[in-house]
Amino acid sequence: MCYNHSIYRKISHAERIRAIYLNKVHGILPTHVAAEVGINFRTVLNIIRDYENTGRTNKKSLIFSSSNKLNSKIGTRDDASQ
What we know:
- By secondary structure, the protein is mainly α.
- It is built from 4 helices and no strands.
- The termini are far apart.
């Protein structure tokens, strides 16, 4: 099966916030949020589900500094609160 990747686009942080806001504050159903914001219905469901599970409105970046990489390899943490 060949997918057309040109139809995918990155959802901006503002669009994610608006989708969550419309659903959580105004109680608008995800189907109506999708139509209002112009995002695929399944994507709106994922945005809302991720927000409910993590409390985050953005996707967590997986970029680490070199010191964090080194510390994670040896099992120590960067902070002094241990």
